[in-house]
Amino acid sequence: MNFTPKLINRFIYIALLLFPCSVFAQNLVKYVQPMAGTAIATTASALKHGQAADTRFANTIPAVTAPFAMTQWTPETESGETKCVPPYYYKDSVFNGLRGSHWLSGSCTQDYGSFTIMPITGKLKTTNYSTTFKHTDELSSPHFYSINLNQYKVNAAVTSTERCGMMQFTMEQADSLYLLIKANSDYHEGFVKVDKQTGEISGYSPAHRIYQGWGKSAGFSGFFVIRFEQSLSKTGTFSGDKTFTADSIKNDVGTGIYAGFKLNKGEKLTIRIGTSFTSLDGARKNLQVEMPGFDFERAVANSKSRWEKALGQISISTGSEQDKRIFYTSFYHAMQHPRLFNDVDGKYPRFSGNYQIEKLSGGNYYDDFSMWDIYRAQLPLFEILNPVLINNLAKSLILKGKQGGWMPVFPCWNSYTSEMIGDHTVSVISSAYLKGITDFDAKDAYQILRHNAFELPANRADYVEGKGRRALDSYLKYQYIPLEDSVRDAFHKMEQVSRTMEYAYDDYALAQFAKALKNTADYTALSKRAKYYTNVFDPSTGFVRGKHVDGSWVSPFDPDKKATYITEGTARQYTFYVPQDVPGLAKLMGGTKKLEQSLDSLFEKGEYWHGNEPGHQIPFMYNYTPSPWKTQAAVRKILATEYSDGPGGLGGNDDAGQMSAWYMFASMGFYPVNPVSGEYLLCSPLFDSIAITLQNGKKFEIICHKSNPKSMYISAVKLNGKIKPDNFIRYNDIRSGGKLEIYLNDKPGNSWAVKPVNQPKGM
């Protein structure tokens, strides 16, 4: 056999996969498929409901990264930082380089502060250098990516830490190797510089806001510094097809730095890259601490070890290798965001600031909260797995509220956005506090959250910037948001019924926080507001419906057509968004049997849309009816039809891991319909057994006893050896460790947890 560099590189990679660090018995990274979600969705509900292309892609990228890291490293097939266009699409066949990316995984936002490094060989060219590739030329995992660029006879690979990356370029023939380094900026504000004395190339790309304040400076940049294993010799700058001897270039189209090397066949060039959101000096410090040497194989092994530890918190037993791939790929996707934002020395850009730098006294600061999505399941998952992380996230949100004067509702690119609807930061902080995750100033946190719930900015300019709840004045005046209020100072305008319902949930969440702090007056007022969802429910139709100031209902009305007063869906779908009070919703409908019939109708008509978050609690709502077995059947069907292990195996935007976290909860047999309550609705686990290792050193196990391999209907449940008649468990049941045993039959049960006494009580 001819041991070419290409083969050697693959042998190294395969060895790292097969022989992980000995402290981890399982080899779990082999189940992770970073390409999942990079192709257009092929699921039935996506084809029916996700007409727009941006909702048909999961919009994930094959990120080489660490859990919740600052920077993701990805192959680039799409240049620029355009909204709703991720750096990589599986359908593409042209490679532009390896990108240091801050793309919000699974989103329809934009990349920011990114840069790209493209290797070419032969003669220097600074335009038309992209090259075709096939997916068989790629190897992708959470800790390592490589690609053979056959046109250039070079292999490019990358690995990472939390804030840094390392790339290695292996020559397949003796030739000149050039690295083209570009700071990506659609605003043409990128800057790159070479310092031959220190052998460093550095640069930055200023970040800009979208949604509220679209196009304005976000008050920070993405900085990077690059160190080379070999001395720099031939360097210069370029703009388009013109090259220059200058040592820096900025604010132009198609600009960058080139660095050239003469290399032999089989020779490798290794580079280290530090990133930061504060400064070039911050990037240098991050690089020195996290990646001080050039040992690429060791860096790959360390990154793999980090992922094995993270994924190893949950161990599943099943005979289905496909299910393992979907589960651990979901776990990987659920650990992309929120994003680490501070340097190793604690420095970070002030929230909604103007290039002001703050410094933490301890812990970490995070941003890029896809809040409308992740409060539902992704963050609740880590309340179980990583309370320390959740505490850091809560403290980060509180810092934002203090520094900006208002609690952000959807903080991304370290700015106010007012993207989507609701005010779900209150759910995250209240939920954490009520679960005993309390290493933050609760009174400070409460006052900032209360500020959002009871007041609007006196300064209109602040409101237009995205501070404060949208349409709060109408919500408080009418106890719903009428159609006459078009909510014009928002990216998502109108959507009045959905806003009313989501504010009602947020008021419930804040009410629970007020109660815990013994603020009786606020608790009473907010609990009343938590019932405002009833004001947009039309009992004559059994659905939520647009309502005018005079109390009349919008007409004509079709519950199965998308409407301007509903967010990304239909009235039928949104009617079930009352996570705080499902029994109250059932009462409005005419009783729990009516609730069951309404749920039946949704599924029978094919109107359930799993690719959009407001419906994620719906399959579990049968647990509030006389037929909880229907939850078990519905969830199993969704697991089977809405997820796969191919590139198109996610049925909609993954939205920073929410879609993936849903799969994880549902496949393990429990789900937080109402995250603040600390209750998890049970369904039948997909696996034979699950073991969750907790940060407190305890272990929570779920064991399935099946009458046959296809059994999926619950007949009985035991918790720590005692019969459990309820169809839900609590947070403390899990955090205390122990064993949940679920007995499954192949036919629906008509006795387990069918009575209201064994179901969650709502409000």
Q: How do you describe this structure in short?
A:
The longest helix has 21 residues.
Q: Tell me the β content.
A: 15-25%
> What is the CATH C-level name of the domain at 62-294?
Mainly Beta
Mean pLDDT across all residues, rounded?
94
Might you state the CATH topology name of the domain at 62-294?
Answer: Beta-galactosidase, Chain A, domain 5
How many runs of DSSP E, i.e. beta strands?
A: 33
| Shape field | globular
Number of helices in the DSSP assignment? 21
Supply Rg.
26 Å
N-to-C terminal Cα separation, in Å? 70 Å
* Helical percentage: 25-40%
Q: Strand order within the widest sheet?
A: 6-7-8-9-18-13-12-11-16
CATH architecture type of the domain at 62-294: Distorted Sandwich
Structural class: alpha+beta
Low-pLDDT stretches: 1-25
Largest sheet: 9 strands, antiparallel
Annotation keywords:
globular; calcium; 28% helix; GH92_a_mannosidase_put; carbohydrate binding; alpha+beta; Beta-galactosidase, Chain A, domain 5; nine-stranded antiparallel beta sheet; 763 residues; 21 helices; Alpha-1,2-mannosidase, putative; seven-stranded antiparallel beta sheet
Plain-language structure description:
The structure is a single chain. By secondary structure, the protein is α+β, with helices and mostly antiparallel strands. The chain has a domain at 62-294: Beta-galactosidase, Chain A, domain 5. Helix content is 28%, strand content 22%. It has a nine-stranded antiparallel beta sheet with strand order 6-7-8-9-18-13-12-11-16. β7 (145-149) and β8 form a beta hairpin. Residues 282-745 form the Glycosyl hydrolase family domain. This is Alpha-1,2-mannosidase, putative. Residues 1-25 form the signal peptide.
